Amino acid sequence: MQNILLFLVSLTITPYSQAYGSKPTREQVCCLALHGLFPAEVNFQGSGTYTNETHKYFSAANFVQPACVFLPATAAHVSYAVQLFNKVKCNFAIRSGGHLPVPGSNGRNGAVLLATSKLNHVKFKGSVAKIGPGNTWIDVYRKTDLIGQVVPDGRVGSVGVGGLVLGGGVSFQQSDYGFACDNVVNFQVVTADGKIRNANAISNPDLFWALKGGGNRFGIVTSFDMKMYPLGRIYGGELTYQYSSLPEVLAQVDKYHGEDRDSKSSIIVNVIDANDLGYGQFVEVVLYYGKPVSSPPPVFQPFFGIPGLIANTVTTKPFSVLVPADKQGLPPGVLSHTWRSVTYQPSAAVNERVSDIFQEEVKSFREERGTDLQPGIFTLAYEPYSTGLTAASQRTGGNALGLDARKGPLMLALLTYSWTNQTESALRTAAVKKSVERMKAASLAAGKHIDWIYLNAAAPDQLPYQSYGKGNFERLRRVRDRYDPKGVFSKLQSGGFPL
Ligand SMILES: Cc1cc2nc3c(=O)[nH]c(=O)nc-3n(C[C@H](O)[C@H](O)[C@H](O)COP(=O)(O)OP(=O)(O)OC[C@H]3O[C@@H](n4cnc5c(N)ncnc54)[C@H](O)[C@@H]3O)c2cc1C
Ligand SMILES: *[C@@H]1O[C@H](CO)[C@@H](O)[C@H](O)[C@H]1NC(C)=O
Ligand SMILES: *[C@@H]1O[C@H](CO)[C@@H](O)[C@H](O)[C@H]1NC(C)=O
User: Fold this and answer.
1) Residue 373 has what DSSP assignment?
2) Domains of the chain (ranges, CATH numbers)
3) Ligand 1: centre distance to CA 165 (Å)
4) Å from CA of 164 to ligand 1 middle
5) Where is the secretion signal located (predicted)?
6) Cα–Cα distance, 237 to 271 (Å, whole number)
7) Residues lining ligand 2, judged by CB closer than 6 Å?
8) How far apart are CA 34 and CA 481, in angstroms?
9) Tens of pLDDT, residues 306-322
10) Of 55, 141, 214, 372, which has fewest CB within 10 angstroms of its CB?
């Protein structure tokens, strides 16, 4: 393998060096070598595929200009690439659905972009779905709907399989089945040495555990084998309220969250201020109920009685219809986004403080920008997590997230600022940080704070692994050192949170 690679590297440098300039970078050398091995899978600047792949991101701030886009079609392609990156020491990044709005986490200018678009198989074997990281959730749900099954995963269709599952994965089916990662029975993963391994309860069990929440520090996952569960048509959609209904909505959310909720139910609350884009201000409650009922189940009835309800799309429908690819009619890549989250025990008082801080901070952001303010959107999401979500991992051998030890339900509040004009990137990122620090202070002051940072909702400077508990953090590091002693995925890979 190594000799072949070196031969190809020397062979390809000369003819292609003109295209890149006289002295290619290490990353360009890797691209040329990959092109020599797999010409159909390597795309250079100027090709339509390169243009499309470098724009497959949720946040426009993540668009990149890599040295090339490598689209492996098999695990063997990935294995060759990892050995090459190791040998030539080139920087690379991995992208699945591109939805993590952390610039650099899924692509970097000048690095090799390994995008999983061609690893897009979905195969069913008994009650297990084999899913490639090149799928988005809508791709998967359209297929599972046809056989009356579901894989517990993302709540927005455009999100990728790869990042969501490796970071944990919160689904509408969370109360019954836990995190998405808890439903993985086997990861096919290419580790730093280029080996294609299976990680499951019997083979490489330590790696299996680490991949359940550990993100991209351990290898490149080329296939996820996940448990499926029967699901027919569901009941769900969105209730949209006037902005002034927010206190009543939050009061109802707290009641819903505090009770031992019906495990078939799940909600998300979005508080949206899109005035600067002309879409107004409103509160949206996304409801999901995993049975084909035709009228609101008791757990949801109070939401239908809150004054100020202005739109209602809640009906019985196939699951894949509930999770459209482009929420709010804005497809991925139109806006840039930055987000940050805070986690606390259910508390009506903290929920209220969080929404007050949101409104105060948005107001002061607008005032400070004055006539320089650029169009954008401010969104505060409340995600009530159930006890079932945090407890389920214990049935399946545990995960790295460290929530099983923390009893009871919890609230994740996620603040997102979105914008059109890149000159506001730094300003909006800093403003989100300041706001969420205030929200954290409020939850601390109320004695409700939970020092847990969800990787899939983290800002660039947050430290999710450290928040998974000392024992889990150290165990993750030990597994990392065992499978990647030279730090290929920590040093050569760009992006990912520090471990
Ligand atoms: C609109 C929207 C809705 C969302 N809804 C949910 C939700 O319902 N539940 C939830 O839990 N989260 C949700 N998220 C958060 C989401 O889980 C994260 O953003 C996740 O990282 C996205 O995965 P991706 O594959 O699209 O992203 P990517 O940016 O492609 O990947 C994220 C990270 O994982 C790494 N990675 C990706 N694939 C692989 C692989 N095969 N092997 C190794 N590393 C890999 C990448 O290097 C990157 O660092 C949502 C995000 C958005 C923007
Ligand atoms: C790029 O995307 C556009 C729009 O989706 C599509 O029409 C075009 O065929 C794509 N080009 C390639 C080379 O995939
Ligand atoms: C972006 O913002 C800058 C600085 O406020 C401004 O000068 C520029 O005109 C804006 N660009 C667009 C396209 O609106």
Assistant:
1) P
2) 2-115 (3.30.43.10), 122-230+470-492 (3.30.465.10), 234-317+335-460 (3.40.462.20)
3) 7
4) 4
5) 1-19
6) 16
7) 48-49, 52
8) 27
9) 999 999 999 999 999 99
10) 372
